[in-house]
Amino acid sequence: PAKKVNQNPTPAPAKKEQPKPANNPPKVSNLPASKQWRVQVGAYTSKAAANEGAAKINKAGYKTVVYSNPASKYIRVWVLGGADKKSAEQVMNHMKSMGFKTSFVVPPQSK
Fold first, then answer.
1. What is the model's pLDDT at position 51?
2. Most exposed among 33, 69, 84, 103, judged by the fewest C-beta atoms under 10 Å?
3. Residue 48's CB: how many other CB atoms inside 10 A?
4. Any bridge partners for residue 68, and if so which?
């Protein structure tokens, strides 16, 4: 006996595009770090602790700067936040969601 062929096959369900996470790292700005808005995520007394925090953030796709000033006992960890305050605020919110609850926005250096 001949097999019956379905003349109207059911189409495969359309693949849904996966939504991009809302907290994607910002596009890296071509501006030098000193001209970008930054987010300070911590001030540490130990270089090892500062590097550990920076590594966690780098793993999430952000670029960090570990900054130490000889006049201060603290080593700061900054995340580059982009060319404008709005971008930096988005980065700050993501840093807070990653556990860096005291993060705050730092404007570009005014030199």
1. 97
2. 69
3. 9
4. 75
User: Using CA atoms in the order 57, 61, 88, 105, what is the torsion angle rounded to 10 degrees?
Assistant: 10
Angstrom distance (rounded) from CA 50 to CA 47:
5
pTM (global) more than 0.70:
yes
The answer to whether 80 and 38 have CB atoms below 8 angstroms apart is yes
CB neighbour list of residue 39: distance below 8 Å, 6 or more residues apart: 78, 79, 81, 88, 91, 92, 95, 103, 104, 105, 106
Q: How far is CA 49 from CA 54, 76, 90, 101, in A?
A: 9, 10, 24, 16
Residue type at 15 in one-letter notation: K
Cα gap 61→6, rounded to integer Å = 49
- Tens-place pLDDT, residues 12-57: 555 544 334 445 565 556 778 788 999 999 999 999 999 999 999 9
Using the structure block, give the residue that is written with the tokens 């096959």.
9
Q: Compute the distance between CA of residue 49 and CA of residue 42 in angstroms, rounded to an integer.
A: 10
Amino acid at residue number 64: T
